[in-house]
Amino acid sequence: PTATTAAPTRTITQSGFAFTPTNLSISVGQTVSFVVNASHDVTWRNGDPGRDATGAPYSRTFSSAGTYSFLCSIHPSMTGTITVG
Is residue 44 classed exposed, middle or buried when 0-12, 13-18 and 19+ CB atoms within 10 A define those classes? Predict the structure, then answer.
């Protein structure tokens, strides 16, 4: 049998009032980790609960292709998009 390894985790960070990178393209099955301080949250526009403004570690694995938009509901000008292909 051939061993398979999961695709590497990608990271989105928060700097000031912006997510970096703003747009990220990943493959189905990849995980995105968010490094966001307690002054910000991660809210998904598609209804996924995301993470409150706790400063706790947060990541999400994407099992379906599509475009996933997110924002900080506390600072709605902070937005980003993950494209899963």
Answer: middle
pTM: 0.89
Q: Is-catalytic flag, 40?
A: yes
**Choosing from 75, 79, 81, 83, which is the catalytic residue?**
75
Phi and psi based region of residue 73 (left: phi greater than 0; alpha: psi -120 to 50; beta: remaining): alpha
- Among candidate residues 72, 80, 82, 84, the one labeled active-site is 72
Per-residue pLDDT of the chain (85 residues; tens, 9 = 90+): 565 666 789 999 999 999 999 999 999 999 999 999 999 999 999 878 899 999 899 999 999 999 999 999 999 999 999 999 9
- Is 72 one of the annotated active-site residues of the chain? yes
Catalytic pick from 30, 34, 40, 51? 40
